[in-house]
TrEMBL record:
GO molecular function: dipeptide transmembrane transporter activity
Compartments reported by the entry: Cell membrane
Protein name stated in the entry: Peptide/nickel transport system permease protein
Keywords: Cell membrane, Membrane, Transmembrane, Transmembrane helix, Transport
Keyword Manganese: no
TM region(s), chain numbering: 44-65, 107-131, 138-162, 168-186, 213-238, 274-298
Gene Ontology CC: one annotated term: plasma membrane
Organism: Thermosporothrix hazakensis
Length: 326
């Protein structure tokens, strides 16, 4: 399964992880490696362009629009026009303005939550894998408990019983229910790495466990972590939109999820107001596709067996000449 899937928590292929660990020197994701990814892998380039566009909209979009997304215009539930590019809501709010402001909120909290989830996975997974023994048994038990629990239904249950609603609440709920798979993958790779020669050498030289975990083991798992964080961000954005659609977030703020919530509450589908719910849906799909394409590229970077190497034109020319000679 590809790392770019939007399953509850994206699966990490064992073959990819094994291939990654065989090449510790290449896992630092140096600038040259990133440049090679962008120039030689069209998936990564397209994904970076899509994600970069949304990040740019999130950063400067509200500065250019400079309108109140909750302001009510006289035109109620108006179709897209020159005055209102994406139409208006039942209250007369401009959908295009809401989409621009919602992009900032959704991307900001989506990426922050994805990073937060990944940090938890890294700390828990590397700690369990490095120390082993009783520490590993206890942490593995906790990981397995969270793995067998359905993540999104559990997030809905927790969010429903939290008295205060808001983006931070959604972030905490998603983080609590989404860290286990990444931690399990990193634990497994750390278990196979902790007996390697360079780890034994660092341990013999008197390095602390903290130094070995975060300065020796962690850099050799950056490809897996990078793929995990991107896949997690995809899930987080979808889960956040889902929780807000169910009214479990702060419905007074403007985001892609709350746009869905108010469109559903006001029967936009029955009224034929497709312009109310379609734009945020397209944005979520495009952003998810862009992140997934980057994930596919990192997957191919980590596992050479997934790579499609380009044959130089000179060699292709010689091969054609040989075929013609035959």
């Amino acid at each position: 399964m590809s790392l770019g899937t939007t399953a509850p928590i994206p699966n990490q292929p064992e073959a990819t992880a094994e291939a990654t660990l065989k090449q510790p020197g290449r896992l630092s994701m140096r600038l040259a490696d990133i440049r090679r990814l962008l120039t030689q892998n069209p998936k990564v380039l397209i994904g970076v362009i899509i994600v970069g566009f949304f990040v740019l909209v999130a950063l400067i979009g509200p500065l250019l629009v400079q309108k109140d997304p909750t302001f009510s215009y006289p035109d109620k539930l108006a179709a897209p026009s020159a005055e209102h590019w994406f139409g208006t809501t039942k209250l007369g709010e401009d959908v295009f303005t809401q989409l621009i402001y919602g992009t900032r909120s959704s991307i900001l909290w989506g990426f922050l939550t994805g990073i937060f989830v990944t940090v938890i996975s890294v700390v828990v997974g590397l700690t369990a894998g490095y120390f082993g023994g009783l520490v590993d048994d206890i942490i593995s038990l906790i990981i397995n408990v969270f793995l067998v629990l359905p993540a999104f239904p559990l997030a809905v249950l927790i969010a429903a019983y939290i008295p205060f609603k808001g983006s931070i609440t959604v972030t905490i709920v998603i983080a609590l229910t989404s860290w286990a798979w990444g931690a399990r993958v990193l634990r497994g790779q750390t278990l196979s790495m902790r007996k390697r020669d360079f780890i034994e050498a660092a341990r013999s030289s008197g390095e602390s466990s903290f130094h070995i975990i975060f300065w020796e083991i962690l850099p050799n798992q950056l490809a897996i972590i990078a793929a995990n964080i991107i896949g997690t961000v995809v899930y987080v954005i979808l889960a956040e939109a889902g929780l807000e659609f169910l009214g479990l977030g702060d419905t007074t703020t403007v985001s892609w999820g709350t746009m869905f919530y108010w469109a559903q509450n006001n029967d936009a589908l029955l009224l034929g107001a497709w312009w109310w719910f379609l734009p945020p849906g397209v944005c979520i799909a495009l952003l998810g596709a862009g992140l997934s394409l980057i994930n596919f590229g990192i997957d191919e970077y980590a596992d050479p067996r997934l790579r499609r190497e380009r044959i130089p034109k000179a060699i292709l020319r010689k091969l054609r000449m040989l075929q013609k000679g035959q």
